[in-house]
Amino acid sequence: MINVAMNRSHSESPTNAPRSDSTPYACPLCHDTLRERISGAWTCERCRRDYDNRRGVDVFVTDEELKALRGNHEPHTLFDGAYHHIRRFSPMTIMYYNAWVERLLGMLPSTEGVLLELMCSGGEVSRRLGARFSQVFALDVDVPALESLAHDLLERGETKIRPVCANAAGLPFPNGVIDVVAIIGGLHHARSILPSVLAEIARVLRPGGALVASEPANDHRLTRAVRHWQYRRSALQGHDADEDGFTSNELRDAMAKVGLRLEEYQVFGFLAYPLMGNADILPWLATARSLRLGRALLTLDRLFEQTPLIRNLGWASLFRAVKL
Ligand SMILES: [Zn+2]
Questions:
Q1: 205 pLDDT more than 50
Q2: How far is the centre of ligand 1, averaged over its atoms, from the C-alpha of 34 (Å)?
C-alpha cells in the first residue's frame, strides 16, 4: 500500500497566477468576448455571468454545474492523489507517457499556435508539449487534478500553460482560435455527450486545425473479448461500460457530422500499454527502479506493430482529424 503526500494543502497555490499572454477566452454560454474586470476575472456582459481564477485555475462553470458534470464520471476516473503521484513519478509510467505523447506529436502537421488539451487530468500532454506551442490550455472538470497541475506549474515557473476548469461540451473559447486539440484517453469517458464535445472541438478549431487523440481501440473482436475478460477481474477498472472506447467507423462518422475529417488512424499498445499504464499494477510500478524492462516492452510493442495478424490487435488507437 503506498501512501503519498499528494494531499498536502493546495492553499499554498496562489490565486491569479501571472499570465504569459492575453487569453482568447469567450463566454462558454454565448461565445461573446469576455471583459476582464481585474486580472484573472472576467464578465460576460450579455449573460451577466462572472468567471474567475481560483488557486491558479481559470474557472468557467458554476459549482452546481461542476457537481452535475462530475456526477457523470465514474468515481475511479476522478482525481486520486496516490494514483496521480505514481503517474507523475513512477519512472516506468513517465517513460510510457513520454512515448505515448511522442507518438501523438508525430501525428501533428505542425506545432505552432494554440494547444488545447481536453479531459487533461494531470495535464500529461500539456506538460510535455507546452514548450512547443505559443499558448496552452489544459482543460478538465476535475478541480483537484487541475489545482495540482497549477501548483506544479507555479513551482516550475511555467506561465504558458493555463489550467482551465470547464465543460468540454461548452468550451470557453471563440470560434476558430485553437490550432490543435489533444486528448489522451478522455473521449470514451464522455460517450453520452460525444456529439456535443466533438461539435465544440470543431467550433473552436481553426479551419485546417487538428484534433489528435488516443482512445481504447475497439475494432477487433478479440481485443474486445480480452478487454471484457480483464475488466471482470480488475480491482480498479471494469465498472465503466465506456471503457470499450470506439470503433474507427464510430469515430469517423461522429466526427464527419461536425465537419472533422478522420485523416489517420493507427492501432498500438500490446504489452507496454497494459503493463506500464495499467491502473491495477501502477502501485507496483512506483517501486520499479529499472528502466530496462520499460525499454524492452516498448521495443517489443514496435515489433508487434510490424507483425501481420498481431498488428491489428493493439489496445489503443491514435488518430488525427482535421477541421474542414
Ligand atoms: Zn455569455
A1: yes
A2: 8
